[in-house]
Fold DUF4371 domain-containing protein.
Amino acid sequence: MLDYKLHSKVLSNNDLIDYPSGENIGNALLAVLTEWEIMDKINADGAAVNDAALRHIGLKDKHAYCVGHKLNLVVKDFIVHYEPVVSKVRQIANCSTTAPSRQANYMHSS
């Protein structure tokens, strides 16, 4: 049976001696991926330095971006553009949950 659970482990904790450029990170990453024989199992966020590192080791088109990271970026962008609407919704929600009559109804129904 296949195990489709996400596993997250620290495989290496090496210090980069040089500046953390895409090339230097790529070389360090390549050493770990090779050592653990997991060249086909890479997941990274869309940071420019990560893209450069993956491009340096030839994996730019063979990795998956972290879905959670991308979703977080989309939500943050939405909030920035729609802050007035989000703020009003928060105010309405706050009023509806802090009004004495609402609190009494909530406490009675619990």
